[in-house]
Amino acid sequence: MNKLILLLLSTLLLGSCQKQAREDLVQIDTPHGAIVVRLYDKTPLHHDNFLALAESGYYDGTLFHRVINAFMIQGGDPDSKTAQPGQLLGEGDTNYTIPFEYIPEYIHKRGVLAAARENDDVNPEKASSGSQFYIVQGKKFTEEELDAVELKVERRTKQYILLNLLRKKTDSTDYLNLKKYIDKRDTANIRKIIDLHHDAVEAQYLRTKPFKLNAEQRQVYKTIGGTPHLDGAYTVFGEVVSGMEIVDKIAAMKTDTNDRPVTDIRMTMKVLQRKR
């Protein structure tokens, strides 16, 4: 009798553990093979939205329309379903955006799933596209390269802080000039305008919790790879659990001047497993 009770208890405990261990998994099928992604729990708005679109068939027939080797592959534009060869894509979307869900532990390591969005100059709140997403391929970094990434992110953040400060002023001269210099990547003149407003920019920058990679994150980027300059700027909401070789294959495809693969790469999606 005691052995039977123990057996029943162990079976119940095993069943409970297996139930708790279930994950939300979505399979992305492509002509080159399947990519399976696991969705994170700490980004529920993106998690639930992606599941709903995948289940509804929204993504079926869309393209991976933007592909950059050693960086990422991007898809989810509904306009891509009927796109003509060579047509510029990336503007199509749902009729809504998703609020930014920043989780510091979710960094842009190789294989993560993240939401695309409009740039900071028109989207300072970092709201995500309702449908467009990307999967990071990335590359490995040295310590010196990671130092340079931190500096690049700092400069970019200060530029957008300054743009927002200048946008609120009645005299728009500095604002218009700064936008022009940013578009031209004129770092010398950008620096001059930043210096004119140094104190206000620095005060706001310090309130934003400046971007710094910790030792663990640096180790990930040195050994696994990724795209660290995107950390803190886009919502990461999942990761590839199988099929990274497919991501690599798609990333290596020949593309046109708009980074669109010359040969269309269509996808379909299905939900493999749900926790609830």
Describe the structure.
Helices cover 39% and strands 17% of the residues. The chain is of the alpha+beta class and 276 residues long. The protein folds into two domains: 168 residues, Beta Barrel (Cyclophilin); 64 residues, no CATH class. The strands form two sheets. It has an eight-stranded antiparallel β-sheet. β1 and β2 form a beta hairpin. α3 packs antiparallel against α4, α3 packs across α6 and α4 runs antiparallel to α5. The longest helix is centred in the middle third of the chain and has 25 residues. The two termini are 35 Å apart.
Key descriptive features of the protein:
39% helix, two-stranded antiparallel ribbon, 2 domains, alpha+beta, 276 residues
Summarize the structure.
The chain is of the alpha+beta class and 276 residues long. About 2% of the residues have low confidence.
Low-confidence stretches: 4-9
Number of helices: 8
CATH class of the largest domain: Mainly Beta
CATH superfamily of the largest domain: Cyclophilin-like
* Major beta sheet summary: 8 strands, antiparallel
> Biggest sheet, strands in spatial order?
3-4-8-6-9-2-1-10
Q: Label the CATH architecture of the largest domain.
A: Beta Barrel
Strand content: 15-25%
Helical content (DSSP H or I, runs of 4+)? 25-40%
Radius of gyration: 22 Å
List the helices and strands and how they pair.
Elements: H1 2-21, E1 25-30, E2 33-39, H2 44-56, E3 64-68, E4 72-75, E5 97-98, E6 112-115, E7 128-129, E8 133-136, H3 143-167, H4 173-184, H5 187-196, H6 198-207, H7 215-223, E9 236-242, H8 244-251, E10 268-273
Antiparallel strand pairs: 1-2, 1-10, 2-9, 3-4, 4-8, 5-7, 6-8, 6-9
